[in-house]
Structure formats: C-alpha cells, structure tokens
Amino acid sequence: xxxSRTRCLVSGILLLAVTNGLYAYDNDDFQVWNTEGQEFKINxxxxxxxxxxxxxxxxxxxxxxxxxxxxxxxxxxKNLDLTLSYRHVIEKKRxxxxxxxxxxxxxxxxWDAFGCKLSNRFRFEYRHFNYQAxxxxxxxxxxxxxxxxxxxxxxxxxxxDEVFVSSLGSAVNNNRFYAxxxxxxxxxxxxxLYYLLQHTRTASKYGDVEWPRINVLGTKIKxxx
Length: 225
What we know:
Elements: H1 3-22, E1 27-41, E2 46-57, E3 62-77, E4 80-93, E5 96-113, E6 116-129, E7 135-145, E8 156-166, E9 172-186, E10 189-200, E11 202-203, E12 209-210, E13 213-224
Parallel strand pairs: 1-13
Antiparallel strand pairs: 1-2, 2-3, 3-4, 4-5, 5-6, 6-7, 7-8, 8-9, 9-10, 10-13, 11-12
C-alpha cells in the first residue's frame, strides 16, 4: 500500500472516529431514504439534474418526507462546479403534510490529496414555508473518496460530513455523517449505497438542549442521458 493511500485511509478513519465521538447519544429511529435522479447533459460542461427523494421513518414503515429537485449545473473547470437549484419539499410535521419551497445555490470545490478525491460543497438556501416564517440556511458538506475501486462496477468507498446552520433558532442545528459505496452499473446508470448518522438539535420539555439521532440506510440511483 502506498504512503499516499495509507494517509488517505487514516484521514477517513479519523473523520469517522471524531464524528462518532460527537454522537455519543441514544438512538432515536431507523429510517430508509431512497433517491432517484435523472441527468441530462447539455454539453461537456453543463447539465440538468432532476431528483426525487422519499424518506421513511418509524423504523422504515412511515413515509414522512419527499422532495422534488431540478438543478442546472455548470463545471467551470476540474476544481469548481456551480449549481442553481429549486427544491419542492413535502414533509409531515405535527401530524400534517406541509410544503416548503427552497431555491438554493451551490458551489463545489474539488481537489486531490494523499491519493484521495476530496470535495467541499457550499450550499445557501432560501426556505419559503406555507405555515411559518421564512428562513435562510447554510449547509457545508465535506466528502472524502478513497483511492480504490473494486470489481467491474467500480465500487468506490467514501466518507462525508455535513453541517447545517440555520437562521431559525440556534445556529448549528443539524449534523450528518455518511459512510457509503458508490458504483457504476452501466454507462448510463450510477448508484450509491450508504449509512447516514444524523443528529438534530432540539430542546427537551425541561429546556435542556438534546441531540437525538437517527440511523439511515440510504440508496441512490441516477440515470444519465
């Protein structure tokens, strides 16, 4: 094993260890998230991406969330992508399905280090609700893709961590850690299988701050045209 790949693997393990250290709390729920996407290439740099996601809570039995997303993505060069997106969210809150309209802009920086492929996505969202005051949210997601691909399907392990900062309530109110495997089924079909550990800041009935967690089994399939 090369020194650069060893350093990359150690970095990923440290990211996992540090994140799990932050998540020393009781489990809350097991969920299943499924994402389906379609990518339409305009030219070598631009594309349109359509996405639908469904989330099932209560140990994977109850549909409580879905979103529909349309985005225009442009690659300025190998190190910088810009994406303009609109997302329509339908989420069950307080026993009712409520809607949110969420235009957002994303900048994605990409680079190589220690044999790994790294990326950092900066996302700024404007959140328009039909049941409460509007808000802004910033999301930062760092991804580390390890330098190995296995089998003809190019199975590639990765780790990622995402922080949410909202104008509603407390600033940092959500954190997600991912460990997954991306793969290529055919030239036009890509997939992803991942585990997600999410903590959301909440206030208990006694006024204390708590970080209940959910464990998620996630799947993604994308068709490329």
